[in-house]
Amino acid sequence: MGYGKFEVYKKLKISILSVGNELLKPGQKIKRNKIYASNAYGISGLLKKYSCKCEILPISEDTILSISKNLIYALKNSDLIITVGGASVGNYDLVKDAIKKMEGKFIFEKVNIRPGKPTFAGILNKIPIIGLPGNPVSSYVCTQLFIIPLIEEIFNLKPKNFSLLSVHLDSDIPANGSRMHFMRGNVFEIKSKKNRFVKEKNKIVL
User: Which domains are present in the chain?
Assistant: First the structure.
């Protein structure tokens, strides 16, 4: 092409930390009242196409000490930290408490959407940190809404445009107050009527 110089970017190093006493690493034998920590792998997969170098950290227990230990490691090895779980306001949701104890500052501590209300963002020792809810749908939606746009901004990439499709609802959707609600459902064709939308739990996100 004949270019003498061109702009390059280093790969963004991202640490992904799952938090929860109920979590098991995939591959371990499942136990009663336990679930696999699969969200981190899904998030990592979404971010790989942006040439991000994602490191999935060991699972943190629901203690400030355990969370802080992993955050200290992440601060030394990351350009961005993502936590999954422990972001709400329950007795065992201690991620924000750990960040505060480490003198981190919050940009926001929740968002007016569903799913994903507990999502937060802040700065910890000059490193940006985003906390996602542990619910799989919430973590997926909020990765698309917050983390990917942040990466696009860092790399000066053209923002991703979602496909929009006008549909007719096949069932009522309950009122959700002022929160923007990202529903899950199936799009399919019924006889000659196209683009019908059926609200079903645990289906694709639109």
Answer: 13-154 (3.40.980.10), 168-199 (no CATH)
Phi-psi region of 156 (alpha: psi -120 to 50; beta: other; left: phi over 0): left
Question: How do residues 154-191 score in pLDDT, each as one tens digit?
Answer: 888 888 777 777 777 777 877 778 888 888 877 777 66
DSSP class of residue 125 equals T
Give 89-127 pLDDT, tens digit per residue: 888 899 999 999 999 999 999 999 999 999 999 999 999
Q: Does the pLDDT at position 12 exceed 60?
A: yes
- DSSP code of 46? H
* CA-based end-to-end distance of the chain: 41
Residue 148 has pLDDT above 60, yes or no: yes
d(CA 137, CA 16): 17
